[in-house]
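Reviewers asked in the last cycle whether our approach scales beyond single polypeptides. To address this, we selected a multi-component target totalling 434 residues and predicted its structure end to end. The input consisted of the following lines:
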Amino acid sequence: MDASAWPMLLEGAWTTLWISGISIAIGIISGLGIALLRIAKIPVLEQCLVLYISLGRATPLVTLTLFIFLTAPSLGLNMDRSLAGILALSLNTTAFNAEVWRGAFNNFSRDQREAAMACGMTSFTCFRRIMLPQMVITSLPGLVNEMSFLIKGSPSIAVIGIVDLTRVTNRISAVTYEPLPPILAAAVLYMAIIGGLIWLQRIAERHANRLAI
Amino acid sequence: MTNWDIVWDSRDLLWQGFLNTLSLFSVAIALAFLLGCLIVYRLEDPKTRWRLPLRSFIDIMRMLPFLVLVYLLYYGLPSAGIRLEAWWAGLIGLTFYHGAYFAEILRGCRVTLSNGQIEAAYAHGFTPSRMFIRLILPQLMIQARPLIGNQLVYALKDTAFLFIITVKDLTWAANSISATYFVPTEAFVAVIGFYWLISLVMEMAIRYAGRFGHKRGFDHV
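The resulting structure, written as structure tokens, was:
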């Protein structure tokens, strides 16, 4: 492996990062939406969401990615590789995030909600002004944990031909016939990314503990 | 002939993939759990020289994607002169990766265990190994059961990665059926159903274990 391999590796790392980043953003927001829909307990919808969360948690990412990418054309959708990858990653992480958000909602203190009601807040104002800011803090550790799981699962998008940090090692070793150095380099890059996230999580947890008191 | 008939006709392939996934998963999980227990047991001794290497092993595994570890074992090791078959590379990868996670889960629970009963056990003349097996490990297992259940699901999902290194698992079966007969939707729906089934069974087992723990008075976890 020579110097020309590093730009390729970094490019792969960038692909991993931007696809994971978009999926994380989608997953957090739609996770909150699904959690709220589940809390609203709308008859048929609720059972569908329970089914989705159960399936989403049980389906391996590789299988889901292949499923989406191979099925889309037969449904008449012309799907880009990156789009299929983002869709698979966010479908997976949404199911997990929804549970984190729901846990934060259900554990929210009853006193504060009653106080807000007594002050004449509508339930929407109460949610936006009182609950959401505190829910963000309490669910942050869980959400960051989910983010690192997503990045650890992101190599699955390589099966549909996206050249991410894992697949780039195959490309380099196809030229140099030495697979070990690029894989080790990729491992170091992954550890830097996930180590950074764990570091962020530690900071988030410290803040959460301080604000929770 | 509908697409579902095609999938039904290749049920042997799916069944084989299912058995392969299941055997790989269960053997790896059993070994990983043993490895996790061994690591926690080693860390019991406060003066052990193993502390630093074991802790760094756990941390490295937790920061590495599973597929990268498998790549290291399957594509990387041959340059060091060790050639593994895909199935064995998968088994070893799963064992070490999830062994580290099990160790971390058990260690996290170990920290919350009260010291009094351990001192009492020492006073009664328990040797460290006996105390670990009879006193500490059962409590850790009951307390950590929700986390262990989660980890089992993660391990099941990680087996699908092994399809990339040509292990003939469920995902491989779906992929080859869909490549041969061009019925991707049905093949993958069937396989996702299999994965779902396995994880539902595991969830039920964990809930059953929860009832057992409840009976033994471990309700606060």
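Chain B is about 80% helix and 0% strand. We regard this as preliminary and will revisit it once experimental data from Aim 1 are available.
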